[in-house]
Amino acid sequence: MKRVKVTRSYQVTIPVEVRKFLGIRVGDYLSVSVMGNRIVLEKVEDELPTFRSERKVGEREIEEALAKGLARSLRGG
User: What is the mean pLDDT of each run of 10 residues along the chain (77 residues)?
Assistant: First the structure.
């Protein structure tokens, strides 16, 4: 169990080991719930996947990727 401190703004920092294990990145959303005396944070997966690339991607490539994904989805795969 990791210990974190609540800041004056009621913020906490998620330890790097936890972020890496869960794949939490800047801009991700977490759901917050209470279970007894525990605060539970869970990574929220986007309904639509996010496209991340190290290179610039053109509009044509995005349209082709969407078309392939749609075709795969319609085939049931």
Answer: 93 95 91 94 75 76 84 76
- Nearest partner of 69 among 44, 47, 49, judged by Cα: 49
Residue 35 lies in a domain: yes
What's residue 46's pLDDT?
A: 67
Contact 64/48 with Cβ under 8 angstroms? no
Rounded Cα distance, 70 and 77, in Å = 10
Nearest-5° Cα angle at 36, 28 to 20:
30
Q: Which two tokens stand for residue 77?
A: 């795969």
Helix (H, G, I), strand (E, B) or coil at 18: helix
Which domain range does residue 41 map to?
16-75
Domain count, the chain: 1
